[in-house]
Structures are given as C-alpha cells and as structure tokens.
C-alpha cells in the first residue's frame, strides 16, 4: 500500500471498483465497504445477489452477516433514503437542524453551510438563499449578522426539513427543464408533472432517446446570444441599408435566394437564422456577446462559430469570428495554446562534492525564544541533504547573519561554489 495506512480507504475503494467494474452502474453501487445491489424484480435480484457473492468468494473478501441486509424495499445510504418512489433526505440527518442555534463565528457558518450543501440537490435556488451566509466567510469580511443572514439561515432550515422527493424519470412522459442565472448563482432542474426529477445533466441522455423536453426560462435568450426587440428593430433597419441584403430581398422565391425568407417580424433570415447586415456596430455587439458575456466565457474560434451560427448568418462570418478571437487580449494571455512552450525537462546537475552547493531559506512567524530568536535559518546541502537549523531573529542585519554563517557553516564545510536563496533583500543587496 503506497504511503502507509492513511491511504487505506482510497486503495480499498479502488480495489472494490476494479473487481466490480463490470457490474457498476448496472446493478451495483460501491462506496468503500458498502455494496448496494438494486434490481427491478425479485427474480432478477436473486441472480444479481448470487453474482456479487461469487465475486466476493473468488477474491476472498468476507461480509459480516450481522451487518448485511437483504431484500429491502427502502434503505438509508450516504445520508439519503432510497426507495421505489425516489430519493429523499434522511430524516435522522436533518432532525437536529430545527434546533440548530444561530451561528456566532465564521466556523459555525461553514459547518452549517457544509451540511446544507450536501443536500443542495433538494433545495431550489440554493446559491441565492445561502449567499448572505457565504458572504460572511470571505477573507477580511467583518462578521455582522444582518436580517438577510437571519432570513437565509431560517429558510435553509425550513427547506432542509421540507425537502421534495427526487423521483425516477418516466421515459414515456414529457419533461420540463427549468434554468435560471443571476449574479448569485446558476440553477437548473428537470420536472415531470410538477415533480423534481434530477439535475440538468440528464438532458443529454433524454436527447439521445428522442424524448419530449419542454424548456421554461424567465429570460428571452438563444444560445450564447441575447435577442431583444430593440436589437431586432436595429437589424431590420440596417438590413434595408445593406446593398447585398436588399438584392436578396428582391430575389426571394427564386433559385438565386434559396434558403432565404422574410419572417413575420420583417427580418430577413437564412435557414431560420437572422441575416446580420454589414454594420460594424451590430457585428461588434454580437461578437462581444458571444465571446465575453457571463455565459460564453471566452470560447475558442470553433466553439464560438458553432454557437453563433445557430442564430446568425452573414457573409464572411467564420473569418471574422476567427480574427476577433485571435485579437482577444484575455485569450492571448490566459489560454495554453498562446503560451510560450515550457520546453523539455532538463536533468539537474549532478554535484561532485558535499557542501559545494547549498540552499537556504527562513522559517518565520515562530514564538519568541528566551534568546530573542523568532525564526529559523535553514541551510541544506544539495548533495547529501544534510541540514543546519540556525535560530535567528528576523530583524538581524546582513552583517550579523554573515558572522553566524561563517561561524556555523564555513568553519565546518568551507566556502561553497553556489548558494540558492529565496532572493531575500538582505542577500540580493550586498551578499
């Protein structure tokens, strides 16, 4: 076992995952030494149980009978109650929440928010509700318990003790997807007949199964770009001033304008996409919204093009998007593809003699000793890893440190050919 017994849970978990790999997410869930077997019918469950026991027997793993439970319709697992109806919060885990006293320190807030965060799947709008509390945990934020904090605290307690049931999806029924975003958080959920199903990640599976999904949002948006009535009005006016688009308007219904159509709002579209006129201001607004908005977050050229082409079309669109992304200063600074290559790893020089090359650093912030020392000067030989720990005062001058260095290091090991330090100002000035 690597690095001693402290890694025992991780090593054991990895071992259990490997021996049950072919069963995971089919009818087995493993968490360290807990094995959960689930099935649709009693007959199927008996077969699954036999297969798991055979694996345990083959690997010489033993289960204590007094700790095993079989043929359950409902069980408690990792703080949740799982049954055929769905998943609920374990009442025993949140029973003490109602008697929870008001937090009086940052540590108290972190403990309470940590418990609430574990069940955030069951609390709609969790980030918005908990925002006043998390604000108090920020560095250098004064601890002032306001009315907003009290409301947040009481609301979280109420939500935890009255949480809904996360039901299993019925693939034959339509789903409603709710999503919302604000400065405090980003939320999403799936509902079926008014019941919360699971988080939005399931939408990808639903789409593969060609299920009916109804999207419900409180904001008019389309992909990565926001479409407003004022924006459409500006597009309509500029289209009438664009020579090429005016020509296309005159050719509608002919072979030279296949795919182009005039919408009910008077906007020319190409295959359902808005035809953007050659107007620098409008293009700039679209490009900035598609690249720098809070929801786009500086995508690459291909991703930005794929996002925008769902809504817009204009001549030379891909080229202009490529040029815009290439000129983005933030992308140039932050993205890996624009950074200088780190180069090949170089082998460190093999030293030939002990104490010929040394390193040094200070350990500071220590309690003051009887001899007025409040720091340790650590000097290490790079070859033998031998070290000296010299008690010093952080306010000592270079001259005093030099005297100590000569007395404790040079006297024993001689003068080294190289010294590596953390560029302390006392050393870089005259050392």
Automatic annotation (TrEMBL):
InterPro entries registered for this protein in UniProt: DNA/RNA_pol_sf, Integrase_cat-core, Integrase_H2C2, Retrovirus_Pol_polyprotein, Rev_trsase/Diguanyl_cyclase, RNaseH-like_sf, RNaseH_sf, RT_dom
GO biological process: DNA integration
Molecular-function GO terms, alphabetical: catalytic activity; nucleic acid binding
Gene3D superfamilies: 1.10.340.70, 3.30.70.270, Ribonuclease H-like superfamily/Ribonuclease H
Domain Reverse transcriptase: residue ranges: 1-82
Superkingdom per UniProt: Eukaryota
CDD domains xref list: RT_LTR
Domain Integrase catalytic: 337-431
Pfam families in UniProt: Integrase_H2C2, RT_RNaseH_2, RVT_1
SUPFAM superfamilies cross-referenced by the UniProt entry: DNA/RNA polymerases, Ribonuclease H-like
Keywords of this entry: Multifunctional enzyme
Protein name as catalogued: Retrovirus-related Pol polyprotein from transposon 17.6
């Amino acid at each position: 076992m690597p690095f001693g017994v402290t890694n025992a849970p991780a090593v054991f978990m990895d071992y259990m995952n490997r021996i049950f790999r072919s069963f995971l997410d089919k009818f087995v869930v493993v968490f360290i030494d807990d094995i959960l077997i689930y099935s649709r019918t009693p007959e199927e469950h008996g077969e699954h149980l036999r297969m798991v026991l055979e694996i345990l027997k083959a690997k010489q793993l033993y289960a204590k009978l007094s700790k095993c439970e079989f043929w359950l319709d409902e069980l408690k697992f990792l703080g949740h109650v799982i049954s055929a109806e769905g998943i609920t919060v374990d009442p025993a885990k949140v029973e003490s929440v109602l008697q929870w006293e008001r937090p009086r320190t940052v540590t108290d807030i972190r403990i309470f928010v940590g418990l609430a965060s574990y069940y955030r799947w069951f609390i709609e709008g969790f980030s918005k509700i908990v925002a006043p509390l998390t604000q108090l945990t920020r560095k250098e934020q004064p601890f002032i318990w306001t009315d907003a904090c009290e409301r947040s605290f009481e609301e979280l307690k109420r939500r935890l003790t009255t949480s809904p049931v996360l039901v299993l999806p019925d693939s034959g029924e339509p789903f409603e997807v709710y999503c919302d975003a604000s400065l405090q958080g980003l939320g999403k959920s799936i509902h079926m007949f008014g019941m919360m199903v699971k988080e939005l990640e399931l939408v990808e599976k639903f789409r593969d199964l060609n299920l009916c999904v109804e999207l419900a949002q409180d904001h008019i948006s389309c992909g990565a770009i926001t479409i407003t009535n004022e924006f459409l009005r500006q597009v309509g006016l500029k289209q009438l001033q664009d020579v090429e688009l005016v020509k296309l308007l005159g050719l509608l219904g002919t072979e030279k304008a296949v795919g182009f159509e005039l919408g009910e709002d008077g906007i020319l579209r190409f295959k359902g996409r808005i035809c953007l006129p050659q107007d620098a201001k409008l293009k700039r607004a679209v490009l900035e919204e598609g690249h720098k908005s809070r929801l786009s977050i500086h995508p690459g050229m291909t991703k930005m093009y794929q996002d925008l082409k769902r809504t817009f079309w204009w001549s030379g669109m891909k080229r202009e998007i490529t040029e815009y992304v290439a000129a983005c200063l933030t992308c140039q600074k932050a993205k890996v593809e624009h950074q200088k290559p780190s180069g090949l790893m170089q082998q460190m020089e093999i030293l030939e003699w002990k104490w010929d090359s040394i390193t040094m650093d200070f350990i500071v912030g220590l309690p003051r000793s009887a001899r007025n020392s409040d720091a340790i000067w650590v000097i290490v030989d790079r070859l033998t890893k031998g070290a000296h720990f010299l008690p010093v005062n952080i306010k000592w001058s270079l001259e005093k440190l030099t005297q100590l260095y000569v007395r404790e290091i040079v006297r024993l090991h001689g003068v080294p050919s190289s010294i590596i330090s953390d560029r302390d100002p006392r050393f870089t000035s005259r050392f």
